[in-house]
Amino acid sequence: MVNGFNGAFAPANWTITYPPSVGTGGSAGPGTVNFTATSLLIESGDDAGAIVSIPMPANGQLRFDYSFRHEDDIQDDMLLIDLNGNVILDLMGTAADQVVTGSGSVNQPVQTGWVLLYAVRGDGFATGGVTSFIQVDNFAFTTSGVGGGGLFPFFNWQNCWGYITGEDKAAPALTCPANTSQGTIVESCYSTTGNLATSDLNMQPLNFSCFIDGQAGIDPGVHYYDLIPFQVDRTDYYTILVSDQFVTSTGAASAEESAIALFQGGFSPSNPCENIIAFQDEPIDNINPPLGNGDPYLRLTMPLVAGETYYLWITSDDALATGTYSIDICPDNTGRVGLFQQTTVLNPLTWEPMVVNNTQLWPTRNVTIPLPLFCEDFDLIYNNPASLAITGAPQASDNCDNSVTVTFVDTYTSAGDCAPIIIRRTFRAVDDKGNASTCTQTITLNRPDDLDVEFPPRTVPIECDEQFAILPNGNPHPSVSGYPFILTVSGIQNLSQAYCNIGASYVDRTRVNVCAGAFKFVRDWTVIDWCDGDNIATDQQVIKVGDFTAPAVTCPGPGPLVYSTSPFSCTAAFSVPLPVVTDNCSNYQVKSEIVTEVEVQVTNQYGIVTGTRTDTVVVRTVLWNAPSRLVSGIPAGNHYFRYTVNDDCGNQVVVYCPFTAKDQIEPTAICDDNLNISIGGGSFTYSGPLANVRSRVYATDINEGSNDNCAIDRIEVRRNKFNPVTYDCGTGFSNWGPYVDFFCCDVGVSITIEMRVIDKAGNINTCWLDIVPEEKVRPYCYAPAPRTIDCDDLPYSFNATDTLQLQALFGDATSDDNCGSYERELPPVPDLECGFGTIIRRFRAVDVNRNESVNFCQQVVTIREVHNYEIKFPKDAEAICGVVEPDSVIYEEIGCDLLAVNHTDEFFSASG
């Protein structure tokens, strides 16, 4: 069993033929036959055909699915034919010049030798505008047995044996490429697309002479246009192809074509003819344009210069037409197309120049370009195997040999030097068995005419400092300005000498001097076709030799420039430096401006501020012929020099060079050198934050008129003999700040205070002074509260002058001071009588710096009288005849009484 197109049904085993034309509306050409492992597709154009057939290798069952479309009445068939020529199956009917489609499946017993045939042919009338095709899928063949059990029981087979010799007698199938007078080359091109829209720029081209060519071209009226900048990185010839899909202002497809022009160096809408170097609004007549079948396209070929900026102008011949377009620019060699500029701009953050790389290459694609074949292409074509890529290669196949050898031999004829050269190329295909087929292709090499000639650029700028070839009269040689040329499959053919029947000559008109070393003149070109006496073409070039490049300008100095303000004002005065200028040919003049940017308020119609905007303000201007370049009064800040440099030929360049007017003058620092500091405040007993701080001196206390030419930012002070960790006296410096603090430990110590003044630009100056802090604050004495006591509560040994006993009985004084103090009790003043009365205690506070308190500080102790005592009188005393010794009075003073005892003795004698 065979599934698909394999084995006996492999593509090599099928016979493929391409019948000649039968139509009247086209030219003969081969159809297409495409096998895959599982399918077969045969297609035909309007007047081309293809027939494939194969005999059945054995008895069996044939199966396949099919679909078809055909548009003729006799040309297409799908047949199964037996050994006697009878049609067993006819799967396609006829169509009376109309499109018929169909599909189905086949499951048919077949016998050895029966032929399966598929055929498609065009009738040449392109009815319906579609191609004919046959599609075969799911092809399968299954062999069957013979005799009574086979598919054909009516045969009475007898077994025998013998030898069979198989021979290949079929010549290869050979199809020649179509007869041609054109060659095809494939170019790698740089492509871009665009769209003409009603929002684009517009102009009336016919208002300008350079867009009027004297032929049917651009219509009068307004035309939308696009302007596409590009550069090339190699000086070479480039072909520009344009394809469009434009519609008119009514929406109908435009019957007109594109129009393009090329400008070098710049484009001015008000004067577009100024820099134009080429214009084209007629399509090249070719039936196979590279950008789509039936699309119009334009070809414009000229040498483009590396580094120049070109502008491709594109519009439609129809006024107000819009739509899409495609552009391909194809280099002859390895040039690239895009934008290769590097732009120097100012960095808005640093005000320094920076280079921005703007290299952007256009995307690439391969474009097939058909070109006429001319008589000078003879050596390229005649008997040259490489020419098959240009004029087409044949198609050869064989039923047995998969590597058919194809060769060709050329012969040619020419009826004269103005007649075309006819090359007859005979191809011969030979298989491995020696079977051969031949076919012939006719290649026509025509004689060019004036329509095949491209003139050089209409304007040619040549820099005066360039090294270029010149004529004896000093004018640039045509090799510099460009010859008329013909675009061929062999490349650009300059008409520096005759090409076939075409030759060119020129005449230079009188020069017009422009500026020193620069001139212009018109070169008239005449192209002669000596095979047509009336076929003469002319064109003009305007050749400009001069200085077309603006001077090269670089900023002065190796880096950003800085100018200091003056000592007594916040403005700078300096001599404006000149930039570094080089010009290729002519003299130049420099206008120098000092420019700055300021923000101004934006108000609405009611005078309400709605925002701000940045305006550029010219502060000073120094002309090229100014007697002095000195300027003054330039405010501090960032500015830039704007240098406008014009050379004698009218080229101008504007360069911005940043600079800064900076305050580099230190402020004047003035300290009060008569400063005396007496610490005070605070309490020695306070334990809160900064409890040890007793005095704070601010920078404003020390500053005695410090000043700056612009503005002081801040004033700071610090002191020595300080411990920043413990925030107390020490051996280091305090941090800079708005004040310094002093402590009790600073009293009597020489301390240096430094003051620094910092201006808005960061300039710093310092002054200092030495001070010895003093402490003049007197302590305050607090006496104990008044006391009252009964005299009988006092100790027996109470001494009203004993201060220690008084402290123990009635308390001690206290005191308060910023740096610490102690109390001293003066001798008390007692006022007692009979043990009661008052005692006045007096105190005084003294601090560590020997300052004494001056406030009234005393305690009054009141001793109240209490009468309480005991008296024991003695008993009577007697004696017998002796001296009596009586007892004395015994008493105890319990209160404050002061008792005095005296007695008088009275003696009594006993009678008897």
General description of the model:
- By secondary structure, the chain is mainly beta.
- The protein folds into seven domains: 2-154, Jelly Rolls, CATH 2.60.120; 185-369, Jelly Rolls, CATH 2.60.120.380; 373-445, no CATH class; 450-546, Immunoglobulin-like, CATH 2.60.40; 552-662, Immunoglobulin-like, CATH 2.60.40; 678-775; 780-864, Immunoglobulin-like (Sandwich).
- Helix content is 3%, strand content 47%.
- It contains five helices and 65 strands.
- Strands 15, 16, 18, 19, 21, 23 and 26 form a seven-stranded antiparallel β-sheet that branches.
- Strand 38 and strand 39 (536-546) form a beta hairpin.
- The longest helix is centred in the last third of the chain and has 8 residues, at 803-810.
- The radius of gyration is 62 Å and the shape is elongated.
- The chain starts with a strand and ends in a 19-residue tail after the last strand.
Layout of secondary structure:
Blueprint: E1 2-3, E2 15-17, E3 29-30, E4 32-35, E5 39-44, E6 48-55, E7 60-70, E8 77-81, E9 87-90, E10 100-110, E11 115-121, E12 132-143, E13 173-175, E14 182-196, E15 201-203, E16 223-232, E17 236-247, E18 258-264, E19 276-280, E20 297-304, E21 310-316, E22 322-331, E23 337-339, E24 342-346, E25 353-357, E26 360-361, E27 364-372, H1 378-381, H2 388-391, E28 395-397, E29 405-414, E30 421-430, E31 436-445, E32 453-454, E33 459-463, H3 478-481, E34 485-488, E35 491-494, E36 502-508, E37 512-515, E38 518-529, E39 536-546, E40 552-554, E41 561-564, E42 571-575, E43 580-582, E44 588-603, E45 609-622, E46 630-635, E47 637-647, E48 652-662, E49 678-679, E50 693-698, H4 699-702, E51 712-719, E52 722-723, E53 728-729, E54 739-743, E55 751-759, E56 764-771, E57 774-775, E58 780-782, E59 787-790, H5 803-810, E60 814-816, E61 821-833, E62 836-847, E63 858-864, E64 869-872, E65 890-893
Parallel strand pairs: 3-6, 33-39, 41-48, 49-57, 59-63
Antiparallel strand pairs: 1-12, 2-6, 4-5, 5-12, 6-11, 7-10, 7-12, 8-9, 8-11, 13-28, 14-22, 14-27, 15-16, 16-21, 16-23, 17-20, 17-22, 18-19, 18-21, 23-26, 24-25, 29-30, 30-31, 32-34, 34-35, 36-38, 37-38, 38-39, 40-43, 42-46, 44-45, 44-47, 47-48, 50-54, 51-55, 52-53, 55-56, 58-60, 61-62, 62-63, ...
